[in-house]
Specification:
The protein is α/β, with parallel strands linked by helices. The protein has a 5-stranded mixed β-barrel. A 5-stranded parallel beta sheet has the order 9-10-13-8-14, with helices on both faces. It binds adenosine-5'-triphosphate. The site of adenosine-5'-triphosphate has 20 residues, from helix 12, helix 17 and helix 19. Its main location: cytoplasm.
Length: 770
Amino acid sequence: MASKRLPVLFLDDIVLLPGMVVQIELDEAAQAAVDAARTSSGSELLIAPRLEDRYASHGVVASVRQVGKSRGGSPAAMLRTAVRAKIGSGVTGPGAALWVEAEPVAVDAPTAHVRELAAEYKQLVVSVLQRREAWQVIDSVSAIDDPGDLADTAGWAPYLANDRKRELLETPDVEARLRLLIDWTRDFLAESEVSDKIETDVRESVEKRNREYLLREQLKAIRKELGEGDAAGTDDYRTRVEAAELPDAVREAALREVDKLEKAGDQNPEAGWIRTWLDTVLDLPWAARTTDNTDLEAARAVLDADHHGLAEVKERIVEYLGVRARREERGLTTVGGRGSGAVILLAGPPGVGKTSLGESVARTLGRKFVRVALGGVRDEAEIRGHRRTYVGALPGRIVRAIKEAGSMNPVVLLDEVDKVGSDYRGDPAAALLEVLDPAQNHTFRDHYLDLDLDLSDVLFIATANVLDTIPQALFDRMELISIDGYTENDKVAIARDFLLPRQLERAALSADEVTVTEEALREVAANYTREAGVRSFERLLAKAFRKVALRELPATVGADDLKDLIGRPRFMPESSERTAVPGVATGLAVTGMGGDVLYIEASLLPGDKGGLSVTGQLGDVMKESAQIALSYVRAHADELGISPEQLDHPIHLHVPAGAVPKDGPSAGVTMTTALVSLLLGRNVRAEVGMTGEVSLTGRVLPIGGVKQKLLAAQRAGLTEVYLPQRNEPDLDDVPTDVLAALTVHIVSDVREILASALESVSPGVVTTAA
Ligand SMILES: Nc1ncnc2c1ncn2[C@@H]1O[C@H](COP(=O)(O)OP(=O)(O)OP(=O)(O)O)[C@@H](O)[C@H]1O
């Protein structure tokens, strides 16, 4: 098409495409252009955008339809845009306006492909218009037939930014223009679908909340009318939950339950469950913590003030607290969780102060203390709670402990972890493992509570009497501290400094009123109790003081008064009595109650077929020990001076007390000695105790629990003990006063025991089967 010379008007904030009728306000430049058009170019001018100081390459040829005033009263002109034109070089005059060469763009007849694109675009535009419910516009757009004209209706589209409109203006090719538009319109539709959805969601949730509020108010009114009251009660939960210091997730969950409660109404059984649950949640100390006292010297002082002796145990505890404090200081507890300090396991017989040490640790740190008894727990739900769907569901013991403690960082004593069982109701040990594992326990989930509970600040201390029944995985997480039991001197000191004052106070007596002599205490320790700890000791003192309180005060309790106050001694040295016949030897053993002595008895039965029977609830290992002992004796009969006929008789070996299950190889030397004593008819010396495994060749192999066994030997009044050579280093752990009271023979072959433990003078009678 031939180019024209036209006055040009650049507009900054609007892009006009062909086929539009618009009113523009006339500033000076616009006035000049419009004037020039009316006077010199047949009312035609070129309008082009100038966006961010960039001039467009194309504009539209527009004709001035009318000039007048806008509604605001300023000069304005009504323009109608026609064809696209390429802007050529600028030329001067006539008049004040700017003139350019404008070359109108020729439009080819549309191809079939272009028509297809146009149809597609038309559909998209109609969709957009439908969303806006612009029905009239839909009609006029639908009526447009020419693809180029259809594309240029985009000039009206409010969702296209000016720079996109300019791109359309500068794209004279119809097909390219339609492609651009199809893309952009699709995007717009997709976006507006999402935002529509958000809008509806928001609107719906607001409406729902309003509706719920209304319904709740109505419900309250109805309940009040029915005299069911308690609308205030549910309201109360809402305010309580809102006022409580709860983690966000917990508050949300609690409010959901309050909603349910409000809907459920009073008569609904569920209301009761929800209330109990809400009470539990509100009772938990979500935000309460105590501040740790990390002064290690002070810690040591507290431990010393609470407990006699136990130097090594206290040292280990102080070290443990020191490491913990340092880790915390360096922020290591939270990083990765794992390995942030194992759990202390206090292992030892009853009454040695495991529980009270736990209490002391809490006191040292200034933390709350709670004890969780695990003895006999077989149901996982005991630890982790029942699901709420259970009738009468309760939270587990851990949650209850935290509630009882009233702080999120108490000391929790897991008492008797060695007595946790498992059965069809799940494995409590596995749940415990989760409780103790720093990698998991910051989000511990109780079934009942069903909320994450952070246990990572809890200091767990476990206790156990024996180690071999603790599940391995649990044991691996723990740092073992053994407390083996007390010597007689220890017990007397503990009684004097701790048990006496406490029991006096309980009996409402004062130290001025009742004095207990050292001999009396020693007598109680030696002949009234035979325990590793001091539990019965304390009980007997309590019993004594109840009687003393009825006497004339002040009073002194001496050894002679004991019979009156607490009865006759219960334990007398029995070793000489028990070993008064051939075939009985005194062994040393460790049980859940601490160390103990054990008399192994052998006797010959009538008959000539040989053979061995064993009784006393022995485990497999112990039964094998008996076999080995007998085989050893048979193989060495000659050397030992045993006549072959003796070996023809069947032998019965018994380990009292028959009701207590026993196992382990450490009775090997005792069984061998009992057999030899029987077959030679020579008594075992009464003051002798022994422990050690025996091999078929008579080697004595090492055993465990040396300290506990020696304590027991001393308690039982023995004065000589045989120990395997490889256990010699264990003597370092044994208190010096125990070692002073015992002669310890270190042996590596059972012959050494047989050579010196039997009475040297034969009683002269050879026992044969009756
Ligand atoms: N070394 C000690 N010094 C002072 N008191 C002690 C000492 N050892 C134990 N006691 C006292 O002995 C009593 C029994 O101790 P505790 O109940 O802690 O024993 P335990 O080892 O936890 O037994 P269990 O295994 O049966 O739980 C407590 O009153 C405790 O204060």
